[in-house]
């Protein structure tokens, strides 16, 4: 067995690392297959890297319309559990009231750029390759090989960076592009697999490695305007890859279902969902910075409130709360209702949730039913006894152990990422 060099101990912020990556690209020392020169020049301008000309921000096109079926999703999508949005299926948050801490596999939201590939685990291999390995070659692992590493179990949510996107429009009156999720592009599961760090070290991780890029085995993603962006892939800085990332082969005690990455997916706790590449087939380990459309044109913040040309690549999720209640739910007056919901954050566990039944004028504390956990959610409940009929606005506001509290509004970004504002949830009392 090959011995691995010690891992680098520095963990620069993604913003400062990105500036370094961009300077390296400028001097011809970064790989950016599938990313246009124009995009990289725009990012250089945004990051303020010397010598770069700032470019105008291109506005993305309109998002996909809702469809009656989800082409390419294998599992059944009963209406009571899902809202289908193009190639994706959003979990109905109200239906989570019937579930425990973990979201059952059959109710877990699906975000597919193309279609679920149905892969045979016995023929599957993972290729780890690139000039960041000390031998510069490639190493293959079968599923049985992975299962010989120490297994690790971890509770974590996977949440799309665009979860809550439609609220930019319905609550803040702002136009955004992309799938019009409400709050159900999230699920929490118990994942089992192996540490990516163990696999990288076994593959011969070299001292010069800086970026690691997992790539899915699903079909090439072609945008609405016909541009082929290749297979879904997004670089992870080595420091994160060696921290808490798993190669997961089980979800809630079962082999990964086809729609969630069978036989193996990457699981990047607390980070935006696109980092958790499904159906992983290869991982490039690079001695030079890497780019893909998923850390350049997508998954940065663009718009007036952000640096010209875009923010640093998005990493951790924000703080959110959702009621396990239909939109415009009807509630009887003079009855005590035990209302429930969940709150979560990518930075730290949620330690406090306050609720309001008058749109935020008055607040009282909700009862928390789970211990705060980074990368997980807490379930909560609040009793409410409305006295008179009419329209009411419920609101829930979470605070995490890092001191982040949900704001009243979220600064707009054109692709509608990281909505974290307090959601105004309408109900009718009769
Ligand atoms: N991995 C591949 N190969 N293809 C994809 O389309 N979608 C990403 C990520 N991994 C995607 C992928 C996005 S945007 C999200 S939010 C999560 O998977 C969703 O995971 P889920 O479908 O298991 O809920």
From TrEMBL:
<dbReference type="Pfam" id="PF03404">
    <property type="entry name" value="Mo-co_dimer"/>
</dbReference>
<keyword id="KW-0500">Molybdenum</keyword>
<dbReference type="GO" id="GO:0006790">
    <property type="term" value="P:sulfur compound metabolic process"/>
</dbReference>
<feature type="domain" description="Moybdenum cofactor oxidoreductase dimerisation">
    <location>
        <begin position="335"/>
        <end position="423"/>
    </location>
</feature>
<dbReference type="InterPro" id="IPR014756">
    <property type="entry name" value="Ig_E-set"/>
</dbReference>
<feature type="domain" description="Oxidoreductase molybdopterin-binding">
    <location>
        <begin position="113"/>
        <end position="294"/>
    </location>
</feature>
<dbReference type="InterPro" id="IPR036374">
    <property type="entry name" value="OxRdtase_Mopterin-bd_sf"/>
</dbReference>
<protein>
    <submittedName>
        <fullName>Sulfite oxidase</fullName>
    </submittedName>
</protein>
<keyword id="KW-0479">Metal-binding</keyword>
<dbReference type="GO" id="GO:0008482">
    <property type="term" value="F:sulfite oxidase activity"/>
</dbReference>
<dbReference type="GO" id="GO:0030151">
    <property type="term" value="F:molybdenum ion binding"/>
</dbReference>
<dbReference type="InterPro" id="IPR000572">
    <property type="entry name" value="OxRdtase_Mopterin-bd_dom"/>
</dbReference>
<keyword id="KW-0560">Oxidoreductase</keyword>
<dbReference type="GO" id="GO:0020037">
    <property type="term" value="F:heme binding"/>
</dbReference>
<dbReference type="InterPro" id="IPR008335">
    <property type="entry name" value="Mopterin_OxRdtase_euk"/>
</dbReference>
<dbReference type="GO" id="GO:0043546">
    <property type="term" value="F:molybdopterin cofactor binding"/>
</dbReference>
<dbReference type="InterPro" id="IPR006311">
    <property type="entry name" value="TAT_signal"/>
</dbReference>
<dbReference type="InterPro" id="IPR005066">
    <property type="entry name" value="MoCF_OxRdtse_dimer"/>
</dbReference>
<dbReference type="Pfam" id="PF00174">
    <property type="entry name" value="Oxidored_molyb"/>
</dbReference>
């Amino acid at each position: 067995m090959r011995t691995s060099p010690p891992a680098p101990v520095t963990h620069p912020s993604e913003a400062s690392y990105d500036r370094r990556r961009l300077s390296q690209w400028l001097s011809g020392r970064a790989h950016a297959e599938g990313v246009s020169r124009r995009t990289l020049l725009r990012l250089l301008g945004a990051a303020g890297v010397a010598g770069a000309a700032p470019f105008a921000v291109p506005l993305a096109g309109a998002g996909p319309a809702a469809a009656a079926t989800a082409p390419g999703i294998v599992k059944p999508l009963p209406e009571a559990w899902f809202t289908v949005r193009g190639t994706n299926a959003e979990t109905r948050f109200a239906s989570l009231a019937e579930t425990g801490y973990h979201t059952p596999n059959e109710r877990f939201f699906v975000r597919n750029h193309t279609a679920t590939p149905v892969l045979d685990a016995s023929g599957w291999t993972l290729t780890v390759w690139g000039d960041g390995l000390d031998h510069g070659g490639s190493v293959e692992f079968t599923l049985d090989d992975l299962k010989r590493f120490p297994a690790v179990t971890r509770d974590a949510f996977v949440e799309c960076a665009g979860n809550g996107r439609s609220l930019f429009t319905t609550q803040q009156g702002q136009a955004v592009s992309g799938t019009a999720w409400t709050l159900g592009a999230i699920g929490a599961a118990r994942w089992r697999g192996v540490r990516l760090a163990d696999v990288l070290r076994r593959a011969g991780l070299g001292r010069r490695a800086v970026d690691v890029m997992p790539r899915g085995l699903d079909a090439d993603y072609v945008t609405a305007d016909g541009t082929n962006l290749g297979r879904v892939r997004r670089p992870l800085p080595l420091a994160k890859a060696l921290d808490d990332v798993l190669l997961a082969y089980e979800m809630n005690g079962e082999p990964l279902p086809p729609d969630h990455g069978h036989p193996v997916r990457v699981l990047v706790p607390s980070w935006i969902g696109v980092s958790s590449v499904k159906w992983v087939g290869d991982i490039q380990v690079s001695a030079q910075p890497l780019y893909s459309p998923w850390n350049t044109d997508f998954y940065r913040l663009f718009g007036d409130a952000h640096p010209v040309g875009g923010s640093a690549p998005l990493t951790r999720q924000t703080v959110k709360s959702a009621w396990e209640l239909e939109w415009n739910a009807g509630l009887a007056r003079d009855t005590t209702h035990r209302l429930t919901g969940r709150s979560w954050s990518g930075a730290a566990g949620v330690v406090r949730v306050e609720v309001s039944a008058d749109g935020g004028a008055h607040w009282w504390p909700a009862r928390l039913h789970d211990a705060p956990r980074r990368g997980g959610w807490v379930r909560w409940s609040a009793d409410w006894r409305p006295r008179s009929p009419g329209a009411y606005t419920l609101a829930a506001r979470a605070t995490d152990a890092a001191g982040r509290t949900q704001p009243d509004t979220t600064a707009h970004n054109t692709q509608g990422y990281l909505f974290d504002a307090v959601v105004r949830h309408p109900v009718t009392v009769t």
